[in-house]
Structure formats: C-alpha cells, structure tokens
Amino acid sequence: MARKKRRTEGKVPRDYAVKDATKDLILKITQRDIDTSSRKKNNSCAAAHALCRQEGFKEARVYKKVTYVRKADGSWLRFTTPGDLYMEIMIYDRNGDMEKGEFRLAAPKGVMRLGHHAKPKGKRRQTGRLPTTPHIVTNVRDHAPKGRNHLAALFA
Questions:
Q1: H or E stretch including 32?
Q2: Environment class of residue 98 by beta-carbon count within 10 Å: exposed (0-12), middle (13-18) or buried (19+)?
Q3: pLDDT tens-digit map of 118-136
Q4: Where are the domains of the chain?
Q5: What is the gyration radius of the CA atoms in the chain, in angstroms?
C-alpha cells in the first residue's frame, strides 16, 4: 500500500533571519533627516532615515523599545532603542519638534537577546503598597509586535 504524502505547502515556516547586533551603533540625526521624516511611522521617521543614510541599510524600523535594520543581504539586525531617542520620538510624534543629535543604539544584552528569558523567581509576597494603574502614553507609534509569531507580524 502506498502512503499518502502530506501537504506541507502552507506549513513551511518562514525564516526572517533576525539576529541581535553585536556592537553598539552611534546614530547621528541631522536636520535634513528630521525635515524629510513622517510622524508616527516607524519606517520613515528621522531615526530610520538617519540609519539608512549613515550606515547604508536598506530599511530601518524604529519602535519604542527595539530598532530593526535590514542589511543588503536581506538579514535583519536588532538593536535596543535608547531612552533619550524614545523621548525625542514621542515628542515628535505628538506634533512637537525633534532635536538633532547623537544617540547610542545598544546591542541587546542579557534577557533582551533573542531566545533568552528571565529565570523564574518563585512566589512573591505582596508589599504594603497599594496597586497603581500604569500611565499609558497615547498618540504615539505602536509597540513592536510580541508573542509567538511576532516576526511574522512584524515583516508581513
């Protein structure tokens, strides 16, 4: 009896070739980058224009916490977005002015690297503090996708 072949056409996983950066990167945003940028768009903001101009990347996507850049061979590098750049992005997205300057995009370290997770801590006891609601910043760009298929959602 012949075996039936399974259909695996739709189940082939895509390989997005995302790697963590190994070195930090100094990003210099100029006034021209700011003038040609768009608000609330992660692939056409001033930082994305500066990354493509300065380092020759094909594409850059700047999110609140992480920055993805696509190299000429099609692979993606991942950096962590620094806090000072995030503040400038948030102000610019809310119709404010962005200042030119230098920012250090750091290579992910520790549990921020792909495939690494924090160790479980065990049971925690409650402190005497009352629970507070977090302040949610509105009217700015979205977070980078998270979860099991975050790379598929990111590059779709």
A1: helix 31-35
A2: buried
A3: 666 666 655 556 667 776 7
A4: 16-110
A5: 20
